[in-house]
Amino acid sequence: MTIPATEAVPSATLLGVRVHLITMRRAVEVIRQMLHGDVPRRILTAHTAMLARVHAAPDLLEVVNSADLTTPDGFGILLVGRILGLRFPERVAGADLAEALCALCAREHLRVFLLGAKPGVAEAAAAALIRRYPGLHVAGTQHGYFTGDEEPAVLARIRVARPHLLLVAMGFPPQDQWIARHRHSLNVPVCMGVGGTLDVMAGMFRRAPAWVQRAGLEWLYRAVQEPRRWRVAASIPGVILLAVRERLGGRARLRRSRG
Ligand code: UDP
Q1: Residue 124 falls inside a structural domain
Q2: 64 within some domain
Q3: What's the gap in Å between 116 CA and the centre of ligand 1?
């Protein structure tokens, strides 16, 4: 479903996944409208590992392409875009976007709920965010390892907390499937899947320095800190190859809507 807030934002389809061609600044503006709206919206951040997962399991396309806004999270997405003849204006990394939204929520007195990661991490992330953005109202925190039996209580806590922004850090695809399943009953204006961002906010892992990010090597920096991420890195060449094949097959599609 296209919605007014993103109608004016052009999007492209990369290996079946719709990604918006948007800057960080515009993404924050668009999400600001959503935060003040009364329709629950979903934000997704697309990276190459996601493209690989979706390619291997096309049934994920529905949850991915039904998000209201999908930002180009990783350098790999920009590269795949280039191969397909598309120019994304810049990277809009989930971790940076989540920070910018927390800063916005602090300024505009909006409530944030942090859901996901191991026990204690969301609380540590909340404390770090409040230090960085004094006045930020973290309406609640919850780890991401609850059982099916515990889920109704988790949902009830979120409803009672009435956040404007719910950051869900349970990895792709579980976090995005969880949001898609519950966002209407939660009635939270904006839910966003943020992967390992709470771990970073809590100080468990560090983001790569700006120059490493600019060089497109953040995936390498993160893989060195977290060896399980080598699997993610290993998906990059396959995705590049698929993009080259799609380009050669002339199947790249670009949809621009008029602003
Ligand atoms: N996680 C969780 N519940 C689970 C599995 C994972 O809360 O059942 C958390 C995990 O602790 C980590 C995050 O989800 O904080 C996954 O981050 P990752 O970087 O793997 O996500 P990606 O960005 O790769 O989707």
Answers
A1: yes
A2: yes
A3: 7
